[in-house]
Design brief:
- Residues 313-540 form the Peptidase M1 membrane alanine aminopeptidase domain.
- This is Aminopeptidase.
- Strands 1, 2, 4, 5, 8, 11, 13 and 14 form an eight-stranded mixed β-sheet that branches. Strands 16-17-18-20-19 form a five-stranded mixed β-sheet. Strands 27-24-23-29 form a four-stranded mixed β-sheet.
- 55% of the residues are buried.
- The protein has 30 helices and 29 strands.
- Helix 20 (765-778) crosses helix 21 (790-800).
- It is α+β, with helices and mostly antiparallel strands.
- It folds into four domains: 9-282, Immunoglobulin-like (Sandwich); 284-398, Orthogonal Bundle (Neutral Protease, domain 2); 424-675, Neutral Protease, domain 2 (Orthogonal Bundle); 834-967, Zincin-like fold (Alpha Horseshoe).
- Bound molecules: 2-acetamido-2-deoxy-beta-D-glucopyranose (4 copies) and zinc ion.
- One 2-acetamido-2-deoxy-beta-D-glucopyranose (NAG) binds next to loops.
């Protein structure tokens, strides 16, 4: 799935209410874990019926009957399906929408069996002579009669018992007819709604991954059960039907007295059920004629959006990115067309359905007049991620969900290569460090992290599969594959991919198949490695966490140790590798050439790393390796001196790394917290984005912990001192804020400059932002605020203003036709300082007429980021828990994040007790939030300890720095 669990980072870091640098989604401290890991927790009720839980126990002893297993037996294999579906876009009763359909699946019997198990969930199956299906023999085979059929709710099967066996080698076809609800639950075949010219429009669309194809029609719903699909969709005149393959031959038909269109689709390639998609809508598209190459590319969206040109950027970039991947994989695009469609209600970021990729509107549509460069980057990276899957994931598919990390980690890594090709001036290959790697290090440094690779037998139930869609899977997966690609070279990496895709196309694999092909490529290229690819990589994927490498530049001694953010935490999962890694240590000395050293033991000595009386040493160049670095204090001092005075000798990624490593090492009590704070001193001379952003992410935690204490004043004074030169720099290069900086990363850093400056009270900042907003209020049809700064400006103006500003922003939010614009306003509305407005906004968040269900938990979380909103949001969540739990639990992907969001400032005994009370009061209705709650308890305790230990030295340091002259 495309980045389902991400929150847009740009929005998350632009709030400045009451001087809080809002929520840097990923901060390098353990509280983040509560948000990160739980982003994907979704309650997947096995059925809507009341008997769902009575027959299902979450930890069954080995079940006796085959239908009590969550995995299909290997006796039958689907060959092809013929599926006809008719979604009704008009309700048949009050808010009840349905679809009906029938399906014939051709089955090959692999092993003799008198039982058919086929997935079916929440479907009403028609019965024929008392049975839920009809069975025929093919090619002269005779079908046994059905003795008993029933729906096994807990495991989501249609169970068919037969009077005599199906014989190996024979073919059969199974017919089912069914109806289902086209509900708004964002899973399976579902409906999405939007307003156009005051008219409510309904579309039918799908989200199958991981286990919801079975909600659309009975099917063998496992990724290795690949088959060919012949789809037919019945729909109303004035609408269009889309699916994975090209539509053809629409004919007029009459059904139940209605004149309708029946659209057929060409047979698909051999593919997995989770990659199916079908949409009925009245959207329009822009497309290319197959000029560049023989693939037709179309971008579909709401008519207004296409007319306004919002699909143009996606269209412009899709062709080149497809071309890039054809080159990179050395393998042509497997399909004839590539449809990409923006869906108004969508739970993930995007979904790589083969040939019909579905997106959230913000991930596909871009409006140059309205959207920021961050919006644009989001579009190009998500498109790139999804297109990468067309080969890796779709053409060659993992055998089971336990290898999801390879699928998603890979797509995440190469999405930056594709985006870099599409936007060569953006430094996308560097931004992966900030967007993926640094953030996930904070998660993976906890004792409760988990290895990338899971055992197949541990990932059986749908809810456990869903849980795998986390940041470890996506971002750590990307980080270790990037590291591998760097040490075997990108060329070798891609030539291994090529032979892998060739061998396994239209088939399924396990991750060791990839290692085998990369090893072949390594051997062929003659790349020297100290161990085989598989042996090196096993250390990174089979055990959780990563090392901190400590280099002593006095003795040349180099050691590694499992890095844990909380030094008191206990790792209770043993690792067969004793938490040791094979570490590719890249390093430079005094700005010389880059060298590489393989650390293969717990401890080694490399005399080349010894420094004489002058000079410095820097390791993990460009953060190519997934590890942190510590040094002897002498080298730290030399690095800091260098950073402060001649820091251009240190690559920009490493200037960010020095900040991030020291803050994390301080948290782990491996260096003094003042060392970490001192790394931010060079920022007064820094204008590059990455060091600033990393510093901001790290200081975010200090604000969360201290923004209600006496540390706040000196901390603000120090921030003001550091950011003033940056603010002036941008004022100058934008000619008094009249033009955009040219460089992509400068555009980002301009946001940091304005946002931090306004919150720290830098002269001229507040006036700047409130005036811009006032001008817009005077003339709503004419918004001249530069799109990159919109979030910051809206937020600041609403924070400084009252009900007038709020109501204006609300009406603009309701009127917005560009999704990214609506998203910025939705966020900015949470910035007000007036409690009654915040309370009203909280109430709106649970009213689907006002805030889309997909956005409810984000809205509450945004409000909780505001120090004034935080206690209100906590009260609100407690008071409305039952309602939230029952109406927003499933499909929304962000349930656990809500708990993390509203509790992340918690740092007192009193708050800890409140959490315990909440847990007690709601026992039995916490579902998957219970894990998030456990983590919130753990984080709160960690915060209490951290504040106790660090408040005094931090206060002292900020106080003395704030009053000392600028260095
Ligand atoms: C199908 O019906 C539509 C609307 O009634 C009509 O415009 C169209 O010409 C018909 N097409 C055919 C092939 O009969
Ligand atoms: C940290 O450094 C400060 C200032 O250099 C010093 O006063 C303090 O004692 C150090 N703390 C520890 C735990 O070493
Ligand atoms: C920016 O504004 C200041 C004061 O208003 C003025 O002195 C300066 O010349 C302006 N700079 C540019 C590039 O317009
Ligand atoms: C909102 O949109 C409607 C219809 O497009 C328009 O009549 C109205 O003036 C707009 N409101 C604002 C505040 O722009
Ligand atoms: Zn993906």
């Amino acid at each position: 799935m495309g980045k389902g669990f991400y929150i847009r980072k740009e929005l998350a870091v632009t709030c400045v209410v009451a001087a809080v640098a809002a929520v840097a989604v990923i901060i390098a401290l353990s509280v983040v874990y509560a948000q990160e890991k739980s982003k994907n927790e979704v309650t997947l009720p096995f059925t809507a019926g009341p008997d769902a839980t009575s027959t299902f126990s979450p930890t069954p002893s080995t079940p006796k009957e085959p239908w009590m297993h969550f995995r299909l037996p290997d006796s039958l294999a689907p060959v092809s399906y013929n599926v006809t579906l008719w979604p009704r876009l008009e309700p048949i009763a009050d808010n009840l929408y349905v679809f009906s359909g029938h399906s014939t699946v051709v089955i090959r019997c692999v092993r003799e069996t008198d039982l058919i198990l086929i997935h079916s969930n929440k479907l009403n199956l028609t019965t024929f002579e008392g049975h839920h299906a009809k069975l025929n023999g093919l090619n002269g085979a005779t079908a046994p009669t059905l003795t008993k059929t029933w729906l096994e709710i807990p495991t989501q099967y249609l169970v068919i018992q037969l009077s005599s066996p199906l014989w190996a080698g024979n073919m059969y076809e199974l017919f089912t007819q069914f109806t289902g609800e086209l509900s708004d639950d964002l899973g399976g075949f579902y409906r999405s709604e939007y307003m156009e010219d005051g008219v409510k429009k309904v579309i039918a669309t799908t989200q199958m991954q991981p286990t919801d194809a079975r909600k659309a029609f009975p099917c063998f719903d496992e990724p290795a059960m690949k088959a060919v699909f012949h789809m037919t969709i019945i729909h109303a005149h004035g609408t269009v039907a889309l699916s994975n393959a090209m539509n053809y031959n629409p004919v007029n038909i009459t059904m139940a007295g209605q004149d309708l269109i029946q659209t057929s689709f060409q047979p698909t390639k051999i593919m997995s059920t989770y990659l199916l998609a079908f949409v009925v809508c009245d959207f329009t598209y822009i497309g290319t004629q197959p000029v560049l190459f023989s693939v037709q590319v179309r971008i579909w969206a709401r008519r207004k959006a296409i007319e306004e040109g919002q699909g143009n950027y996606a269209l412009e970039k899709t062709g080149p990115i497809l071309k890039f991947f054809e080159n990179y994989y050395n393998s042509s695009y497997p399909l004839k067309k590539s449809d990409q469609i923006a869906i108004p209600d969508f739970s993930a970021g995007a979904m790589e359905n083969w040939g019909l990729i579905t997106y959230r509107e913000t991930a596909l549509l871009y409006n140059p007049a309205m959207s920021s460069n961050g919006d644009k980057e989001w579009v190009v990276t998500v498109i790139s991620h999804e297109l990468a899957h067309m080969w890796f994931g779709n053409l060659v598919t993992m055998k089971w969900w336990n290898d999801l990390w390879l699928n998603e980690g890979f797509a995440t890594y190469v999405s930056y290569l594709g985006a870099n090709f599409a936007e060569p001036t953006w430094n996308m290959k560097e931004l992966i460090v900030l967007n993926e790697i640094i953030g996930v290090m904070a998660v993976d440094a906890l004792a409760s992290s988990h290895p990338l690779s899971s055992n197949e037998k541990d990932i059986m139930r749908p809810d456990l599969i869903t849980e795998l869609f986390d940041s470890i899977t996506y971002s750590k997966g990307a980080a270790v594959l990037r590291m591998l690609s760097e040490f075997i070279t990108e060329t070798t990496f891609s030539s291994g991919l090529h032979t892998y895709l060739e061998e396994f196309k239209y088939k399924n694999t396990v991750y060791t198949d990839l290692w085998k092909h990369l090893q072949m490529a390594v051997d062929k290229a003659g790349i020297p490695l100290p161990r085989p690819v598989e042996v090196i990589m096993n250390r990174w994927i089979l055990q959780m966490g990563f090392p901190v490498v400590t280099i002593n530049t006095q003795t040349g001694k180099i050691t590694q140790k499992h890095f844990l953010l909380d030094p008191d935490s206990v790792v209770d999962t043993p690792s067969e590798f004793n938490y040791e890694w094979f570490v590719p240590v890249t390093w430079i000395k005094n700005g010389g050439a880059e060298q590489q050293y393989w650390l293969l033991e717990k401890e080694a000595t490399n005399e080349d790393m010894i420094l004489n009386t002058t000079g410095w040493l820097l390791a993990n160049i460009d953060m190519k390796g997934f590890y942190r670095v510590n040094y002897d204090s002498e080298n730290w001092e030399r690095l800091l001196a260098n950073s402060l005075f001649t820091f251009q000798a240190i690559p920009v990624i490493n200037r960010a790394q020095i900040i991030d490593d020291t803050f994390n090492l301080a948290k782990a009590k491996m260096v003094n917290i003042t060392l970490a704070l001192r790394t931010t001193k060079f920022l007064s001379k820094e204008v590059e984005y990455m060091p600033w952003q990393i510093a901001r992410n790290n200081l975010e935690y200090f604000f969360l912990m201290f923004d209600r204490s006496e540390v706040y004043g000196p901390m603000q004074a120090y921030t003001k001192k550091q950011v003033t030169p940056l603010f002036n720099h941008f004022k100058e290069i934008t000619l008094n804020w009249t033009k955009n900086p040219e460089k992509h990363t400068d555009q980002y850093n301009q946001v940091n400059a304005v946002s931090l400056a306004c919150s720290a009270g830098v002269e001229g900042c507040k006036e700047l932002t409130t005036n811009w907003f006032k001008e817009w209020m005077k003339n709503p049809a004419n918004n001249n605020i530069t799109p990159n700064l919109k979030s910051t400006v809206y937020c600041n103006a609403i924070a400084a203003g009252g009900v007038q500003e709020w109501d204006f922003a609300w009406s603009m939010f309701k009127n917005a036709t560009v999704a990214s614009e609506a998203e910025k306003l939705m966020f900015a509305l949470s910035c007000t300082k007036q409690p009654w407005l915040l309370n009203r906004y909280l109430r709106y968040s649970l009213d689907p007429e006002k805030i889309r269900k997909q956005d409810a938990t984000s809205t509450i979380t945004y409000i909780a980021n505001n120090p004034i909103g935080q206690p209100l949001a906590w009260d609100f969540v407690r008071a409305n828990w039952a309602h939230i739990f029952n109406n927003y639990g499933g499909g929304s992907f962000s349930f656990g994040r809500l708990i993390g969001g509203v509790t992340k400032r918690f740092s007192t005994e009193f708050e800890y007790k409140q959490l315990l009370q909440f847990k007690e009061d709601n026992a039995g209705q916490l579902g998957s939030a219970s894990m998030a709650l456990e983590r919130a308890l753990e984080s709160t305790m960690a915060n209490i300890n951290w504040v106790a230990m660090n408040k005094e030295p931090v206060l002292e340091w900020f106080t003395s720095e704030a009053s000392s002259p600028v260095s």
